[in-house]
Amino acid sequence: MKVKDIMITKVKSIHSDTPVCQAFDILSKEGLSGMPVVDDTNTLVGVFTEKDIIRYILPSYIQQVGAFIYHNSSKTIENKVHELFQKRVVYEVMRKEVITIGPEASLAEAARIILVEKIRRLPVIDKDNKVIGIVARQDIVKAFVQGQC
User: Fold this and answer.
1) How big is the chain by its Cα radius of gyration, in Å?
2) Maximum CA extent, the chain
3) Cα gap 106→76, rounded to integer Å
């Protein structure tokens, strides 16, 4: 089975100049944890996820040193949240280096990439870097398990 056989083709995406507050609203309403960021020609330029929101709010050193040195300051967090949701656009928060996959790739390859890169979804792009679909961990698991339970 190939990625094109299971990918979602109705992909919810946003533009890089979308305010973060609006992008988060889309994530929430659609029940998504992330979505591709595209330009006016549907060319992939990044990805915006809940993880990017958390990464913006928490100090950058927390991953390296761990929670034992991090002192939770509600005022600091409150200020960061306000700044993010009132003053920032997606481009300032999104990941610009995106791991993608083509429609002809095998599900095993998609699963390998998701595991190795520790990501939840892979934008599926054509030869012109246009988003034509998305495949998520859940889609792959469902395909592997189909007919087993």
Assistant:
1) 17
2) 51
3) 45
Q: Find the helix packing angle between 50-57 and 74-87, rounded to 10°.
A: 130
Which of 125, 128, 115 minimizes the C-alpha distance to 7?
125
State phi, psi for 97 to the nearest 5 degrees.
-95, 110
C-alpha–C-alpha distance, residues 63 and 21, integer Å = 25
* pLDDT, one tens digit for every residue, the chain (149 residues): 999 999 999 999 999 999 999 999 999 999 999 999 999 999 999 999 999 998 888 765 455 555 544 455 566 778 888 999 999 999 999 999 999 999 999 999 999 999 999 999 999 999 999 999 999 999 999 999 987 77
Handedness of CA 26, 31, 33, 39 (dihedral sign): negative
* Superfamily of structural domain 3-145: CBS-domain (3.10.580.10)
Neighbours of 12 (CB within 10 A): 14
Encoded tokens for 69: 């040195």
Look up tokens 């792959």; give the residue.
Answer: 140
Whole-number Å distance between alpha carbons of 103 and 124: 6
